[in-house]
Amino acid sequence: MRIVFATGNQNKMREIHEIMDDLGLEIVSMKEAGISADIVEDGTSFEENAVIKASAIARQCEDIVLADDSGLEVDALNKEPGIYSARYMGEDTSYRIKNQNIIDRLEGVPDEKRSARFVCAVAAVFPDGTHTVVRETIEGRIGYKESGENGFGYDPIFYVPEYGCTTAELSPEQKNAISHRGKALRKIKDMIRDKQNEVR
């Protein structure tokens, strides 16, 4: 039994390994599993898109399949970019440009109205056909400039007040402990453990 994660994002796979390797199961990306699929993410929520991705890959293998859909919600921008975070301003647009666009759109907006959150929904589809999905968040606000080299995506502009820095300035261990994805993956990890114990 192994876990196939429905992503081709190497940064994401690194975080997944850091959080889930102690499960004792082999964890591979869909590419490493030799699976390719053109998945249309046409859900209206993070949860729906995660289930769509996991279900599409599960039809091609006998493994536990995990998929996440995650993104940034900026309250002052009507929760944009939301479920379109990866495709915001076009799929091939660099995050430096995306981040600067968000900063520019918030020009003149004071700290207390720059609230934002990262959202992560993780879906698991098990070989017996059952599936589950969890949702976790981390609250913060949008900074005034990019800061930090550790993260990826929107991390350099996502400021966490209690840490006094962006998620791109946190160590991988700190980030995994508090992040939306870290919390969601740990919840799914517990569910997989429960499932393994049922089988035993």
Features:
200 residues; alpha+beta; 5 helices; single chain
Element layout with pairings:
Layout: E1 2-5, H1 10-20, E2 26-29, H2 46-58, E3 64-74, E4 80-81, H3 95-105, E5 115-125, E6 131-142, E7 158-160, E8 165-166, H4 172-178, H5 180-199
Parallel strand pairs: 1-2, 1-3
Antiparallel strand pairs: 3-4, 3-5, 5-6, 6-7, 7-8
Unreliable spans are none
- What is the mean pLDDT? 94
Rg from Cα:
17 Å
Q: What structural class is derived from the secondary structure elements?
A: alpha+beta
Secondary structure tally, helices: 5
**Highest CATH level, the class:** Alpha Beta
Overall CATH architecture: Alpha-Beta Complex
Helix content: 25-40%
- Describe the largest sheet: 8 strands, mixed
Q: Which assembly state applies to the chains in this document? A: single chain
Strand content: 15-25%
Number of domains: 1
What does this protein structure show overall?
The chain has helices at about 10-20, 45-60, 95-105, 170-180, 180-200; strands spanning about 1-5, 25-30, 65-75, 80, 115-125, 130-140, 160, 165. The radius of gyration is 17 Å and the shape is globular. It has about 200 residues and is an alpha+beta fold. The protein has a single domain (about 1-200), classed as Maf protein.
Give a concise summary.
With 200 residues, the protein is α+β, with helices and mostly antiparallel strands. The protein has helices at residues 10-20, 46-58, 95-105, 172-178, 180-199; strands at 2-5, 26-29, 64-74, 80-81, 115-125, 131-142, 158-160, 165-166.
